[in-house]
Amino acid sequence: MNAIQIVLVDDHAIVREGLGLVLGQQLDLVVVGEAADASTAIDLAGRLRPDVVVMDIALGTEDAVASIEPIVARSPQTRVLVLTMFDDHETVRQCLLAGAAGFVVKGARASELVDAIRAVHRGERYIHSAVAASVVEDGLRWLRNGDTLSPREREVLSLLGGGRTPARIGEALGISVHTVRRHLANSAVKLGVHGVHDLAGYAREHGLARRGDTVRLIPGGSA
After folding, report:
1. Which has the higher per-residue pLDDT, 222 or 47?
2. What is the 3-state secondary structure (H, E, C) of the chain?
3. Cβ contact 74:27 at 8 Å
4. What pTM did the predictor assign?
5. For range 137-159, the mean pLDDT
6. 106 with 18: CB under 8 angstroms?
């Protein structure tokens, strides 16, 4: 049986080396390439046509969710398995919508990662148990309420209306600024508004701004 060919994508060399050692112990898995940034990952996917790309979505200052779609476009048979420290349901949803076949948190056991790689290679979806419940709840919420804001989107919007920048919102909630901006972008689409200023104004006009925060104007820019 041919070994499953894997490309590892993480901006930390020590993480890639550790993953290589773990996966190298499996006779049916082989690492054929490594990348530290999204552009290299896309290029490798096109050249090597691996079976599975195991990738983090926070690559330095890059939000690598946007690289999932071009990876799959370059190599349609390649399955993307996200391996990251972020475990909020919105990040999971964005990755799956972008074309990821699976999602594993970095707190998982090595055996779980190996199982996930084999599962996505078989054509299955794999969602780590640490986030599976939130994904199901998110799906049920959408079925019940349609395009209403999720609790996390509402929380982000309330802090924005209270005057916090996306970076400060991320610090307050313990999530990345990239995740904050995805929440804001989704909220803008759902509410039919454009940009951070309009979202902040919507939050204040509709009583969503978190009390106790000083409201101030935020420099222009899109969500």
Report:
1. 47
2. CCCEEEEEECCCHHHHHHHHHHHHCCCCEEEEEEECCHHHHHHHHHHHCCCEEEECCEECCEECHHHHHHHHHHCCCCEEEEEECCCCHHHHHHHHHHCCCEEEECCCCHHHHHHHHHHHHCCCCEECHHHHHHHHHHHHHHHHHCCCCCHHHHHHHHHHHCCCCHHHHHHHHCCCHHHHHHHHHHHHHHHCCCHHHHHHHHHHHCCCCCCCCCCCCCCCCCC
3. no
4. 0.66
5. 71
6. no
State the virtual CA torsion across 66, 69, 73, 74 in degrees, nearest 10.
40
Q: pLDDT digits over 44-80, tens only?
A: 999 999 999 999 998 877 778 889 989 999 999 999 9
pLDDT, position 212: 43
Cα 83 to Cα 15, 44, 73, 92, 201, distances in angstroms: 11, 18, 20, 11, 36
Least Cα distance to 79 among 47, 54, 115 occurs for 54
- For residues 47, 49, 54, 56, the Cα torsion angle rounded to the nearest 10 degrees is 40
d(CA 193, CA 197): 9
